[in-house]
Design a protein that fits this description.
Distance between the termini: 64 Å
Number of helices: 12
Structural class: alpha/beta
Number of strands: 13
Length: 378
């Protein structure tokens, strides 16, 4: 297994940790061997049950029991679907899938201090796994990040710094700091996607070793899209499934660079107007692996949709009334599914999974404002 520069084709050994190529571009991991169902460690109840397919020695695993999230049947807009409850992770978001693998890799290579930029959930996840690994951790967040997320990060012992400006300003600041501390960005270090690919393995196992017809995920930087493409791709090459599911990414219309590129039929970012969105977890104006994410969506027969702030709020309330208390980023995916069903892109008779990525417990004050919630006096 090597790091691969997708532009130049240059390869680098994974023995030496790095987050970008010598030319300054991002890196991918070489194609993985995957596994067959007989290789699953059924005695392990975390993502490491798929250790045979993970490019990190399980003996180095830094784990808190992540994975194994419920897959519940239900209905959305009158259509039977399944809800994948990724918000039921140790730190409250899907980020734990990628973080357990990324931190395990970095720790095994002697990295003891890490830097990350985050809108909240990735920072919370890295701070927790770094604490479990005995690593020092510095997290940069936007000044608009919700306080519960900041508190969660700081409680785990990380040094938290708020940065004025946009989410991209936070990422740019982290890059400037990367000369003094290893930049363990979940958007740059490809071992993060090596972890998120276990979502595909888990869905396959939970569905009786079958792939769903459709997977609908929130789309910011694209780690769930990349994970689904990598995981289901390995299963397909090993003959464990006969086809890829269609992958649908959902963006907030206020910050939709992927959607605009997809609509334009190109594989690169185009000029896009960016304004604030309540779906802060996908407010990424300059995602990293643009070519790969767009290709994964197109090759699978899926698509990318953009949803308005009002659509997100409506979906947020509907999810809550079904018992799913999630943050606005997850609600964006549900709003996207509403569009996909209404347009006929997803049919009622198909097997569809809606991935709910983050808990609402970190954003209760904002959710209360959005849904105009208040207690009544007796």
């Amino acid at each position: 297994m090597n790091f691969v520069d997708p532009v130049s084709g240059a390869t680098y050994p994974i023995d030496t940790p790095r987050w970008r190529s010598d030319s300054g571009g991002y890196l991918n991991l070489a194609q993985g061997a995957g596994l067959k169902r007989a290789d699953i460690d059924t005695n392990c109840h975390s993502v490491w049950r798929y250790a045979k397919a993970i490019a990190v020695d399980v003996r180095h695993a830094v784990t808190m029991g992540e994975g194994g999230t419920p897959l519940l049947g239900g209905e959305w807009q009158g259509t039977s679907i399944r809800f994948k409850l990724e918000f039921m992770m140790p730190t409250g978001s899907f980020k734990d899938r990628g973080m357990t693998v990324m931190v395990s890799y970095l720790k095994s290579r002697g990295i003891n201090e890490v830097l990350e930029d985050s809108s909240g959930n990735a920072g919370a996840s890295l701070s927790a796994y770094a604490a479990a690994a005995g690593m020092r951790c510095r997290i940069l967040v936007p000044e608009t990040a919700s306080y519960p997320k900041i508190a969660q990060i700081a409680a785990c012992g990380a040094d938290v710094f708020t940065i004025r400006g946009t989410r991209q300003d936070v990422a740019d600041t982290a890059m400037r700091m990367s000369s003094e501390i290893f930049y363990a960005s979940h958007n740059w270090v490809p071992f993060f996607a090596e972890g998120t690919k276990t979502l595909a393995y888990e869905l396959w196992e939970q569905l009786g070793f079958k792939a769903p017809d459709n997977v609908v995920v929130p789309l910011g930087y694209g780690s769930n899209v990349a994970g689904c493409e990598r995981g289901f791709g390995e299963l397909l090459r090993n003959g464990e499934i006969t086809r890829m599911p269609r992958i649908f990414g959902v963006q907030a219309a206020n910050c939709a660079p992927y959607f605009n590129a997809y609509q334009a039929g190109v594989d690169h970012l185009i000029p896009t107007t960016i304004t604030p969105t309540i779906a802060e977890g996908i407010a990424s104006s300059k995602p990293t692996r643009v070519v790969e994410a767009l290709k994964a969506v197109r090759d699978s027969g899926g698509g990318i949709v953009a949803v308005s702030e009002d659509e997100i709020v409506a979906a947020l309330g509907t999810l809550a009334r079904k018992g799913f208390y999630v943050e606005s980023t997850s609600a964006a995916a549900a709003a996207g599914l509403t569009q996909l069903l209404a347009s006929g892109a997803i049919k009622p008779n198909e097997s569809t999974v809606l991935v709910l990525t983050g808990t609402g417990l970190k954003a209760s004050e904002k959710i209360g404002e959005l849904l105009k919630l208040q207690a009544r006096e007796m």
